[in-house]
Design goal:
14 helices; 346 residues; Rossmann fold; six-stranded mixed β-sheet; elongated; alpha/beta; 434 Repressor (Amino-terminal Domain); six-stranded parallel β-sheet
Length: 346
Amino acid sequence: MNSKVSKTKLADIARAAGVSPMTVSRVLNGRGGASPETAAKIEQLADEMRYRPNAVARALKSDRSGIIGVVVPDIANPFFPDVIRGVESVAMQNGYNLLLCNVVESAERELNLVRILETHRVDGVILCSARLPDAALSKALQGYKAAVLLNRTLAPETAGSITIDYRAGAADAARHLLNLGRRKVAVIGGPTTSVGAAERLEGIRSAFLSVGADSPVVVHCMPDIAGGAAAAAELLKAHPDIDALICYNDLNAIGALQYCEATFRSVPKDIAVIGFDGITLGELVRPQLSTMHVDKYAIGELCMRMLLDRIDGKFIQHRIVVRPELIVRTSTMLEQQAISGQVDFA
């Protein structure tokens, strides 16, 4: 069998069926124009001749491609598959398919992918945790009819946004540790290109300032397990008296747990560790990971619904803010503490 993409045209099917190209076009686009017998023959010929419509040409004619671009910084990060599932659920219900792009934590690749999606005439784009600076991101989105950002904000005429309140969530994480009596707290800060990382630091510093404590030391790293382990090593070698770590995400926190285990530091007795995002893996490690949880699937649904409104020219909401929920597990509290309620979370 020839595996090459078919170059069959409407005219080829029309000749084989003995009808006009217009009739073939109407039948294949579901607009009638032929008897049931003729329509069945056209559809059979199209299948046998492996006819595939030119999606770009169709999009030019109809001003709709039926495709949504979704850009994520790293598909290997367990945070994003649940977001994508939420986006896809709403997209499919509304007749759209997804074109998924993986940035691999590269701002340059992100810019190239946004440009490529525009040339494919997608109906809209959802960018998750964009790494581009604001000015470059705004310019890249100028050619889009509809765009939604997750964890970033731009002018509402450029893109809608679904944001996680990282400042409030990180402040809650810091207060949790302070209420536990932890005072030698350090931060595994994630990527320097992440706006969310900067917002987390603002929240942590505000919580420490409110109790008159010095701002914690920070080390930035890649947002994966290896990055978390490396950052924990750097912090604990320089400051062996650290008694708590606030981590950019759960992957960084799991890396920190691994380093603590390798260096015989008991968690949470010697050092408490808290993550961010609430990925399933955090429940499976030992000790189980305390985290600032967000409903990632629901966030994906919100992104797609907002994008649909913008595709239809409805600018009902420009921004939705989601606040993380503190989930306390045994990486910050001994089981008996959690059961007895010894800690004030106010």
